[in-house]
């Protein structure tokens, strides 16, 4: 049976620096402020730093020159440009060339060249005709070993063994002997070496190189093309040391074959680069060997860079090593996200994750609703988050205080320092700082002796990373260069130094930003072809300088207490729906209403006050909802009166069509809850069973509303608030109707809490499944965000419920009601609300026990036992009353059979 699996050993050659997880792309995790590709010799672009692929592939309009095309272009005396030469050599058919030879060209390019072109370059054209005949067959035939377990699959239908061996060798030998031009003669020799290699006649390939290549004393492109084939044949004969050395020569002396030669060296000899170093004789060979050693073992390349410096400080490959080192540092210092908010670091408890709830409870992981693209997390961030989510997390960092207590030394955008993460975590790393210092010393030394301005630019950038903005700027001002790529990098770095070094963003500085740096903030409109198919980009655009500067300003505004502006630097107004905490909403509204906004505020920040319909109604809705959660029904009504123009919670529909992704605003159907209208009177009811995924008519049961005709079957929030105000007034009485009114208010408060079926009602959500409305964060901060709001859509935070509000209304029912069943039902609801208080306690009292602790299980069990004792002693008050005083009630019997966690308690 064929086994079409590529060997893992071979795969590792191509992906050794890639993350193990397919969903991680490290090349999207930093800001690309220092452009690696500014190196002058573009043939080394594949060897710039990347962790996503085996080779760097983002050449940004700088394709690697093809040695073969450049050689042919020169052969034709530059009569054709590069593109025309490429067309002639690779694309024009053999029939077209025969037509040219016969004096009847039909191809437009050949007609343009004229019939005299063939006469002038007869031997070259004849060679191209022969080469185009051979090319379809020029692949090695696949031969599977009887003992092989892996294979690359079946070979092509046509390969070198598909044509007559003797006839082909004779023809090529005859053409070789008849040709006078040494370069074309050598090309026929190359074909002989290649043909013998691909037919696995390895000895004949070695002989052909010796007979037909070496006698022609030319070591240009064709020589190294043939040497590449010779090395392949030597590898076939297991002459690995010789093959490796010849691949090394190809690597050194070609532009477009460096990738393949490097892979061939790896395949030929597991100790390839060390052995090459032993064999290197000339300074250039030693220099290249040092480069390959440093490239392959990229832990601390500076010692090897010192050796390369001693050989040639102007070496282009030394610059490649330096730019890789700079990129490595940039990745450490400039991540695209800082996960340092209390909510992202600390434990939360979710409903559905304890034995105190029905098996029908939902326990879906908290996640932001309608985040269009997965957030870009680093590999290590995802691993840490995975285990935190899996095991419940661990508490780290402070859970109190606010942003005004921060040190000025906390974020990149504070003038004092730029923070960074390392592969082992966040924060300072002495080894990384030492690496930066050593690399800076090296660039300072090299820029004094090298004639290339690159080293000055590199030195300026390293000083930027070290927060020496003044020193960086001074170096940049002194650089004299005409290189357009260098000039662009210098311009960018001047902007970075200016903005990052500024201690406060005031209106004067905002005017400066718009006057001098508008191009970094004003996004150019790109007209899209409406008929084009939209390509789906899983990761989005690569982080850019503009993104970095936006984060700088977002952090500055945050530290200055301008949360609304900070939020809008990274988010749209509609995003507030996902985490509508009061202080942030108020700050955003203050900015919205701010008169005399600067040009920067108008064009850059306010543009994110996107279409939520009526903006004033949007804010009023959030405030009204918060007032309802606080049981301030009068205040809620006043806000809902202003929110009647609310257009619905702003959501988008994402559909795929034959033209790509179609994005349209969600249109709410008649009778569908849209954040304001169409609320069932079941919100005043109680659970039949606890199942958040079932229809409301299955999970909830209505109370008797006959005494309260103002409770309609379907209400909007204004009507709901008015109904609650009337219930509150009735509840001030002393009769059974007052008892019932208080019970209905308690029901609504519980049902709209994080434990209730209608938990979405007052947190700007459209159903009970999304977002963080069922989380119990262990934070006392009014604002859990610590640096900026960039990760706002990922860090869910809903202001904590006050379960005592519902309990207080139920207490009134207990006091006033003479109906035993009603009192039992109220006690059960009180007990359920008390469970919410316990979950909040548990979240705030989590312990951080290391998984590596040999006594982890014992400590975890001890902590759980302590929590169980506290729960039974302090948070089972109303369950205990039910058990002791209402055991014979019908309500009690029904609950024992339908509520699993109540039944569990009764058995204890």
TrEMBL record:
Region of interest (Disordered), residue spans: 397-416
Signal peptide span: 1-22
Keyword Signal: yes
Superkingdom of the organism of origin: Bacteria
Record keywords, A-Z: Signal
Designated name of the protein: Gliding motility protein
Lineage of the organism: Bacteria, Pseudomonadati, Bacteroidota, Flavobacteriia, Flavobacteriales
